[in-house]
């Protein structure tokens, strides 16, 4: 079996089990791409936030320096019993002004960050949805892919936090630069002492972040299971079955076991982290007080003034907390940068269905029809053939019914016809040319498929019908005609808000429909497009006998001249088709008209008699 694109190890893949500092630094290379994304989200806000932060980063040094001047001035005045003159008041006013300015800058930065964060989160969510839309059906059916998409999706909030973290990181580093320059003028050794005090704490943080990351990542599949049980246990869609089968005890037990396992795993790590964190923080305080002692001794010796003492002690204290912040934040920034790998990797996943370089236009009308040439198909990760050795032609205008037991491969066949998958072996031709040569968008526009597991959109009736051809969502005439054709118009007339009625129970004023009513609504989608091929996969299973009869009468009239494939277990429906294709274990065992197959006395005749007997 060939390896799928997303199973291969991408170049920038970082293995989760052991994350070294090198890995973390390597992950930082995702940041330029990330910042580009931020820039694309909103240029002006990005620029504004950067400028304000630059300004803000110079303020601590300025305040400390003005503070030193004030204290020196006060000491001078008190030693010389001199008159307080304007200079002191000016300094105090300056410091006051700086404090107010700094506060205003902070608020402006928080404001811009939160707005930019919202926009950024919307921007990336839209990008994820847009990319997911380009991928193939079987990629969604693969759990490896699904986990990756989940991680890319769930990290939306994480990425928004990362945004302000990266910005703050840059700002704090510039502030440290300013403070270090000030400190270096008086005593460069203090800076060295500072680093020695802070680095153990950084290494500790870094180690524990690695463990947390590895743990969280390793838990992704189980977390999905946990989310699923949470949904099963408390959702309108599951409530009915959970109640009648009395499943809540089972669901709660499973949830409890899983969530308890997470709790215990996490608790161990959190406790170790807290203990080591306390120890490292003590080392930091030791460093600070050592420096403090050095400065005090030098002040007593008269080598620095009292003002300088406060300046140095203040600078040192601020630098320590900034440096600790920067180093701690480094681990979360690199953490975020590693999660970004998941995000960017998701965008590296390419659809497997290859588009033709020079796509052909869909033929109008179809000349010779769709021809299956020894087509076989295996689902991803499956060793079994779902379809094999399929050879037949669906002629233009022909109505073909597919018959076969559960799992015989009927739905798979129509998915191949609609090019939701490409055959594993053999070819499907349209008018003698491989289906792969045709423009995929045109192919989709010219084929209408209603699957047995169609979606019940929690939207209005009109929107539910318009889903069949969303470009016509405002074409009320078309929507109403489609509803008439599928018999959904009676329902529309009955609903209080008619076509604007919200369906389903999820949103306010929603009305729940019966199974058959939903099916009529879904069927209306088929009539929204003037397609050349229509596929109905068990479209009438939930309809009552009269409705089914009428639906098919109309279907035959409305699709006159068009090709159609019907899947049904009801022979009253099946017999209306021009030809019937009988599948068994993915292979064709019979093909012919109702009369021909009855005469043949094979599987079709046997199944037909079986059903007919039930009605006698
Ligand atoms: N997404 C999938 N991934 C893997 N295997 C699948 C998938 N869908 C179907 N199969 C398998 O392929 C085989 C054919 O399934 P298919 O849905 O085509 O049958 P069907 O004839 O439409 O059945 P039914 O009458 O029950 O709808 C089955 O054995 C099924 O287990």
UniProtKB/TrEMBL annotation:
InterPro entries: AAA+_ATPase (IPR003593), ABC1_TM_dom (IPR011527), ABC1_TM_sf (IPR036640), ABC_transporter-like_ATP-bd (IPR003439), ABC_transporter-like_CS (IPR017871), P-loop_NTPase (IPR027417), Type_1_exporter (IPR039421). The keyword Transmembrane helix applies. Coiled coil: none annotated. This is ATP-binding cassette domain-containing protein. GO terms for cellular component: plasma membrane. Keywords: ATP-binding, Cell membrane, Membrane, Nucleotide-binding, Transmembrane, Transmembrane helix, Transport. Residues 47-335 form the ABC transmembrane type-1 domain. It comes from Hufsiella arboris. It holds the Pfam family ABC_tran. Residues 370-610 form the ABC transporter domain. One of its GO terms (molecular function) is ATP binding. Its main location: membrane. The lineage of its organism: Bacteria, Pseudomonadati, Bacteroidota, Sphingobacteriia, Sphingobacteriales. It is a multi-pass membrane protein. The chain crosses the membrane at residues 176-203, 274-297. It is found in: Cell membrane.
């Amino acid at each position: 079996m060939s390896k799928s694109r997303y199973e291969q190890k991408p170049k920038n893949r970082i293995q989760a089990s052991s994350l070294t500092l090198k890995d973390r630094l390597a992950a930082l290379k995702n940041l330029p791409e990330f910042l580009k994304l931020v820039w694309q989200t909103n240029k002006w806000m990005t620029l504004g936030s950067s400028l304000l932060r630059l300004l803000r980063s110079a303020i601590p040094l300025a305040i400390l320096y003005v503070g030193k001047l004030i204290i020196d001035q006060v000491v001078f005045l008190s030693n010389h019993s001199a008159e307080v003159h304007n200079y002191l008041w000016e300094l105090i006013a300056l410091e006051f002004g700086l404090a107010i300015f700094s506060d205003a800058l902070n608020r402006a930065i928080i404001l811009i960050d939160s707005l930019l964060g919202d926009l950024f989160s919307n921007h990336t969510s839209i990008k994820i949805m847009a990319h997911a839309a380009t991928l193939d059906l079987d990629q969604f059916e693969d759990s490896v892919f699904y986990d990756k998409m989940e991680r890319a999706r769930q990290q939306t909030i994480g990425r928004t936090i990362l945004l302000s973290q990266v910005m703050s990181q840059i700002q704090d580093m510039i502030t440290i630069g300013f403070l270090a320059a000030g400190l270096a003028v008086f005593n460069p050794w203090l800076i060295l002492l500072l680093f020695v005090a802070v680095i153990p704490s950084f290494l500790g943080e870094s180690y524990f972040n690695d463990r947390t990351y590895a743990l969280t990542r390793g838990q992704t599949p189980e977390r999905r299971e946990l989310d699923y049980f949470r949904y099963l246990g408390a959702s309108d869609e599951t409530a009915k079955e959970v109640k009648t089968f009395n499943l809540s005890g089972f669901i709660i037990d499973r949830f409890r076991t899983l969530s308890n396992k997470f709790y215990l795993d996490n608790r161990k790590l959190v406790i170790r982290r807290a203990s080591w964190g306390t120890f490292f923080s003590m080392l930091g305080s030791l460093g600070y007080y050592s420096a403090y002692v050095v400065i005090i001794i030098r002040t007593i010796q008269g080598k620095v003034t009292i003002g300088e003492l406060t300046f140095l002690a203040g600078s040192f204290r601020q630098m320590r907390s900034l440096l600790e912040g920067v180093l701690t934040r480094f681990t979360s920034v690199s953490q975020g940068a590693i999660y970004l790998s998941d995000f960017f990797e998701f965008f590296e996943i390419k659809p497997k269905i290859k588009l033709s370089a020079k796509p052909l236009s869909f033929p109008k009308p179809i000349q010779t029809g769709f021809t299956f040439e020894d087509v076989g198909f295996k689902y991803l990760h499956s060793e079994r053939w779902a379809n094999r050795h399929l050879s037949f032609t669906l002629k233009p205008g022909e109505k073909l019914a597919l018959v076969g037991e559960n799992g015989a491969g009927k739905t798979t066949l129509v998915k191949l016809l609609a090019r939701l998958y490409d055959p594993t072996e053999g070819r499907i031709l349209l008018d003698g040319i491989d289906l792969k040569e045709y423009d995929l968008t045109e192919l989709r526009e010219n084929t209408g498929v209603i699957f047995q597991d169609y979606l019940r959109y929690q939207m209005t009736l009109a929107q539910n019908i318009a889903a069949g051809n969303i470009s016509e969502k405002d074409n009320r005439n078309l929507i109403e005609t489609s509803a008439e054709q599928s018999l959904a118009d009676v329902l529309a007339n009955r609903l209080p808000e008619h076509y604007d009625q919200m369906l389903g129970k999820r949103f306010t004023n929603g009305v729940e429909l019966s199974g058959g009513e939903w099916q009529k609504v879904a069927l209306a989608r088929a009539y929204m497009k003037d397609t050349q091929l229509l596929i109905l996969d068990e479209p009438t299973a939930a309809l009552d006998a009269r409705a089914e009869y009428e639906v098919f009468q109309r279907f035959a009239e409305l699709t006159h001249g068009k090709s159609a494939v019907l899947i049904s277990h009801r022979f009253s429906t099946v017999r209306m088709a021009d030809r019937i294709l009988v599948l068994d274990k993915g292979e064709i065992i019979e093909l012919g008209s109702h009369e021909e197959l009855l005469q043949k006395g094979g599987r079709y005749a046997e199944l037909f008699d079986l059903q007919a007997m039930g009605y006698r």
